[in-house]
Design a protein that fits this description.
Layout lengths: L1 E3 L2 H12 L4 E6 L5 H13 L2 E6 L9 H6 L4 H11 L3 E3 L3 H4 L18 H4 L3 H16 L3 E5 L3 H13 L5 E5 L19 H6 L2 H14 L4 H13 L4 E10 L13 E9 L2 E8 L3
Parallel strand pairs: 1-4, 2-3, 2-5, 3-4, 5-6
Antiparallel strand pairs: 7-8, 8-9
Helix pairs in contact: 7-8, 10-11
The protein binds pantoate.
The site of pantoate has 10 residues, from β2 and α7.
Length: 279
């Protein structure tokens, strides 16, 4: 695997490759797990060259403690990437990506004011800034993003459409642990007891889906999910919503586009998850 820390040498390397290879990009913040490996596998199936970026992007963190505590484990990540067959790793430092402090602000209208956007102001603007930089540097044919961050995918979709980036976006299904917990780098911050409790969010999604399919009203289901989470000590629900997967507008009635999204804390660790109402 070729490793680059700087933008210009990476661009020069990719310029040559681009003439014969299609390029897949897997942007990450490191602390890689099986979910990331699956993004790489998808990219390898569709491209001759897969580039993974590892960069903990400060401008997308609205909580300085979260940024400080975000797991960093480069040696482990490099081993995983080699095993997964990644061709190129781009691992810049903050100075390389932000030669001067970023003053740009993206506004995605209602898409970044709801759900995650409501609880993490500025987060999606920060994501859009770094993803735009990666798209300009790597110029991938296809970029891969996990569906656990469903709202992030919708924001990036809007970014690509409105700014006419010449690339395809591929959403990759959520990868789950054996008990159903959605894989996330943040899971590493959970202690043993918290790890067990964290399953409450996925269980709430499954429970909610069942209740809604049985005809319960969303308002009732929201209350039941709240109660279910409140029963687990140390768990704090931030939101549970049913929205359209097309435009993220809240829904009262289940349609074939409905998606359930949940977010909350287990101890100090914030987790998110989601579930489509129809497979
Ligand atoms: O989903 C992530 O890991 C990050 O938000 C991303 C897309 C790599 C941007 O920093």
């Amino acid at each position: 695997m070729e490793v680059f820390n700087e933008i210009e040498p990476l661009k020069a390397f990719l310029k040559d490759k681009r003439t014969t290879c299609s390029i897949g990009l897997v942007p990450t913040m490191g602390a890689l797990h099986a979910g990331h490996s699956s993004l790489i596998q998808f990219s390898k199936q569709e491209n001759q060259l897969t580039v993974t970026s590892i960069f903990v992007n400060p401008v997308q963190f609205n909580n300085p403690k979260d940024l400080e505590k975000y797991p960093r484990m480069l040696e482990h990540d490099i081993n995983m990437l080699c095993k997964a067959g990644c061709d190129v790793l781009f691992v810049p430092d903050t100075q390389e990506m932000y030669k001067q402090p970023s003053t740009i602000q993206f506004d995605f209208g209602h898409l970044d004011k709801i759900l995650e956007g409501k609880f993490r102001p500025g987060h999606f603007s920060g994501v859009a800034i770094i993803v735009s930089k990666f798209f300009h540097i790597v110029q991938p044919n296809i970029a891969y993003f996990g569906q656990k961050d469903f709202q992030q995918f919708k924001v990036i979709e809007k970014l690509v459409n409105e700014l006419q980036f010449d690339l395809l976006l591929r959403p990759v299904p959520i990868f789950r642990e054996a008990d159903g917990l959605a894989m996330s780098s943040r899971n590493l911050r959970l202690n043993e007891t918290e790890r067990k409790k964290a399953i409450v969010f996925y269980e709430s999604l499954l429970f909610a889906k069942q209740m809604l399919l049985q005809g319960k009203m969303i308002s009732q289901v929201k209350e039941l999910v709240k109660q279910k989470c409140e029963l687990v000590e140390g768990v704090r629900l931030e939101y549970f919503e049913m929205v359209s997967s097309e435009n993220l507008l809240a829904q009262d009635i289940v349609t074939e586009k409905s998606i359930l999204l949940i977010a909350g804390f287990v101890g100090e660790v914030r987790l998110i998850d989601n579930l489509m109402m129809t497979p």
